[in-house]
Fold these 4 entries.
Entry 1:
Amino acid sequence: MKRADYLNWDEYFMGIAMLSGGRSKDPNTGVGACIVDRDNRILSLGYNGMPFGCSDDEYPWAREGKPLDTKYLYVCHAELNAILNYNGGSLRGARVYVTLFPCNECTKAIIQKGISEIIYLSDKYADTDSTVASKRMLTSAGIKYRKYEPSGKRIELDL
C-alpha cells in the first residue's frame, strides 16, 4: 500500500520555490520561483539577487535612501531569474510558483514567455501600483493567478 501523506504538486513546487528563496542574500525579502511544465517537470528555478558579476557584497541591500543607494535598481527578481536561467525551448503553457506576487516588470516577462499560470504564496504588496498593474495585465492576457493555500504540512531538512 502506498503512502497517503505524500506532497501534492502544489505543495512540492511551492516548497521548492520557498527553498530557492533561501539562496537570496536580501536581508528583508528572500523570494523564490519554480517554473514547471504541463507534465509537472521542473524547468527552472530562481531567487532574487544581484546579476552575475555584480558582487552582493558591493551593491546595496537597503530599502530606503537615494535610489542608487538602495537595492531596487540592481536586484534581479526571482521570476525573472527563473525565466533567464531557463535554457530549454518554449515556456508556453508553463506554471510559475513564486513566494511573492510578481511585480509589473516580472509580469511583463511572464506574459511575453507564454507562462499560463502563477501560483503565489504572499500578496503583501497587493495595494501597490506595481501589483495592481500586474493583475490588470494578467487579466488582459488571460493568464490565471491564484493564491497558494498552505496545507499545514511541515517538512524538516537537516542540512
Note: The chain has a mean pLDDT of 96.
Entry 2:
Amino acid sequence: MKRSVFGRIWPNATAAVLFVGFAFPVYWMFATAFKPTGDIISENPVWFPTNLTAGHFAKAVDADHFWTLVLNSVTVTVSAVLLSLVVALFAAFALARMRFRGRRGFIVTFMLAQMAPWEVMVIAIYMLVRDNDMLDSLVPLTVFYAIMVLPLTILTLRGYVAAVPKELEESAMVDGCTRTQAFVKVIFPLLAPGLMATSLFGFITAWNEFPLVLILNKDIEKQTLPLWLSQFQTAFGDDWGATMAASSLFALPILILFIFLQRKAVSGLTDGAVKG
C-alpha cells in the first residue's frame, strides 16, 4: 500500500528543519568571522556577506600563546585518544572472547562509569593531582581525558569484536598463527568502523573538555584552547569578529575530522559486512 503524501513529506520536512536548526549557528559563526566589523554591528543583519576579510583570523592567530595552546591541545587530545584505544582494544577482546568470573560486573561497571558526570569528581581529581605535585602539567589531563572516553570505547569495541565470527580466528590459529597474530591479522582489520567511531568520540570529548584544565592548569603555557577561547572575548572586548574567528579556528579540526571519519566509517562498515 502506498504511503500518503503526508507520510512521504513529513520525514523530509522534519530532517530539513533539524538540519537548518543545527547548521545555521555554524554558518553564522563562520560568516561572522569573515565579515567586516561594520557588517557585524549593523542594525540590519548581513545574511550573505560579500565583502570578506581575513583580518579577524589574523588577530586571533596573533593572540598571545595561541600556537602554544594549539600544540598543547593537539598533544593532549591525540595522546588521550591513542591511550584509550590501546587499553580499550585489549579490554574489549577480553570481554568478548574470554569467560571469567565477574565479567558481567565489569560490563555493568563500565556502563555506570559512562553515565557518571565527571564534573562531580573535579574536586577529588584536583586533590589527587595536587598531592602528587602534578598541577600545571599536561600528563594528568591526558590520563583523565583517556579515562573519560574509556568506558564507551570499551563497550563499542566489545560489540565489534563479538561480531567477528570465532571461526575466522580459529582458522588462523589452525594455520599456525598464535592468538596474538590471529588478533592482529584477522580481527583488528575488521574493527576499523569501531576504531574510527570511538576515535571521533574521544577526540571531540578531549578537544572540548573545559572544567579539568580550568581547575588543574593555572599556568597559561600549560592550558588548552577551550580555556583560551572562554577568555578570548574578555581580552578583546566587543570584537565579535575576532571572537567568531577564534571560535571557527577551534571548531575547524572537529569538522574536518568528522567529515573524514564519517566517510571512512561507512566504508569500513560495508567492507566488514562483506568480509564477515
Note: DSSP finds 13 helices and no strands in the chain.
Entry 3:
Amino acid sequence: MTTHDIAKVERMEMYLKAVLTLQQFAPPATVSKVAEFMGVSAPSASEMLRRLEQQGYVRGGTEGLNLTTSGQEKATTVVRRLRLAERLLTDVLKLELPKVYDEACKMEHVISDEVEARLAAVLGHPATCPHGLPIPGEADSIIATRPLIDVGVGQTVRIASVPEEDGALLEYLVQQGLVPGAAVDVEGVAPFNGPVTLRIGGLSHAIGREVAARIRVR
C-alpha cells in the first residue's frame, strides 16, 4: 500500500468515526455536523460521504446519516483503538488530558489486531477512555447518563464524560475541575439563556449552557 493509499484509508476511517460519534452523542448525524467535526467545508464533507455511500459504508436518509453493518464495524474498530491509545497515553505516559485525543488520533490507524489485543491486556481491559467515554468491546454495560444542562438546581451529580476531540474546551474543563469522576452541585441556572452555576470542590464556577450541554453526568 502506497503512502497515498494509506492517507485515503485514514481519511475514510476518520469520517466513519465522525458519523458514529455524532450518532451516539449529537444525533442526527448530518453533513454539516460531520463537516464541523472534521474541520472541513460542507461541500468537502458531502463529497467524501457520497464516496463512502458508494462504497457501502454509509446510508443517507431524511433523518440523517447512518452507518451500514460494514461501516459500523470499521468505525467501532477505529474508536476502540483510539480510546485504548488514549488510555496508554494517560495511564502509562502521563500525557495531559487536553493533548491526548490529537496524539491518539495519530495512532488509531496503525494499531494492528495483535497490538490492539496486547494493549487492552496490558491496560487491564479498561471500560472507558480518560474522557469517560466507553471503549467498544470492553464496556459490559452502558451506564445511563444525561447532559449536565438537564440537571435541576439543588441536585448533586458525578461527571461521567467530557468531549474528547476539543482540546481548548478540555483545557478549560480541567481548569474548572470538571473532569470524569468529579462530584458537582448545581447551584443555579440563570434565566434568558444565562450561565449555569456549579459548585466543585468547595468553589463556585459559572459555565455557559453550551458547555454544560456537552458534559455528561450520572
Note: The two ends are 45 Å apart (CA to CA).
Entry 4:
Amino acid sequence: MSKILVTGGLGYIGSHTVVELHNQGYEVVIIDDLSNTSLNVLESIHKITNSSIKFVELDLKNSVKTKEFVSSNKEIDGVIHFAASKAVGESVENPLKYYTNNLFSLTNLLNELKNLNKEINFIFSSSATVYGDPKILPITESEPIKKAESPYGNTKQIGEEIIKDLVNSSSNFNAISLRYFNPIGAHPSALIGELPIGIPQNLVPYITQTAIGKRNELTVFGDNYLTRDGSCIRDYIHVVDLAKAHIKSLEKLIKEFSKNYYDAFNIGTGKGTSVLELISCFESVSGKKLNFRIGERRKGDIAKCFADVSKANELLNWKSKHSIEDALLSSWNWEKHIKNEKL
C-alpha cells in the first residue's frame, strides 16, 4: 500500500481527493493549516470513509515544521499538493499573501521531499488560468502560456516551472500538473462540498446560497458576449471526477510513466456551458426559481473557456463521467445539508 501525503487535504478539492484515495486502498496523511477550512471536514471524511485518517495541522510556510514533518514521514511515496490560496480577486488586492503562501509552501515542501533521496511522485494542483484568453477553442495543452491576469494565476505558472525544473535536475522526482477548469458539485453523501468563507467567489456556491436565501440576488456579469446567449461560457467539472483524475495521475506515475517524468494535463469535461444555461439547469434540478439580474461585464472575464481533454483521456485513462445536472443537484443537496447542520 502506497502512503500518500495530501496537502490542503481539508479543502474543497483536497477532501474529495482524500476520499477517493481511501476508496482505492491508499494510506493517506492529510496536512492543512486550517486557514480556509475547519476540522468539521475531517469528521465528515471519517464518516464517509468509516476510517480514521491521519491529520497533522501544519503551515508549510514554516520551513522548520515542514522539515520535522517530512523527516518523521519518510515512508511517503507520493504527494498531491493542494495547499494554496485560491481567490483571483483577493490575489489582486493582496499579491504578497499569494506569492508568500503559494510559492514558499511549495518550495519548502519540495526541498524536504528532495532530501529524502527516494523516488517521489508529485501531483500539482494547477489551473486553466495559466492559458489566459485562449486563441483556439477547445484549449489544448499546447496553447501558449500567456502573462498571467492575476497574482494567483502567476503563482500557478511559476509553480509549474519550479516543479518542471526540479524534475529535470533530480533523478528521483516525477510530477504531473493538472490544469483544472471549473470544479463544481459535492460528494453524493452531501457531507463534504464547497464551503466558501464570506461572499462566494465562484458561481455555483453563489447560486445555491441565493436559492436557499443566504443571498438576496445573483448577478450575471454581462449578457453581450459573443456567445450563444450572450453570457460567458465555461467548462464545469464535477469535483468527484476531478478528484479521480488525481488518483489516475498518481497511478500512472507509480506504475507506468518513466522516471523523471513531467507533463501537464487539462482536467475538464470538454464541453462549454454558459452562465445562463447553468442557472436554467439549476432551476430545473432543484425546483427553485433564482432571483438574478444582468449586470455589467466584470473586468478580466473572457467570453469562452473550455478544455480539450483528449490528452488526459488517452494518457491518464481518465474521463469525466458526471453530468452538469449531477453536479448541480449534488451542490444543492450540500447547501441544504449546510443549512440543516449549520456548519
Note: The two ends are 34 Å apart (CA to CA).
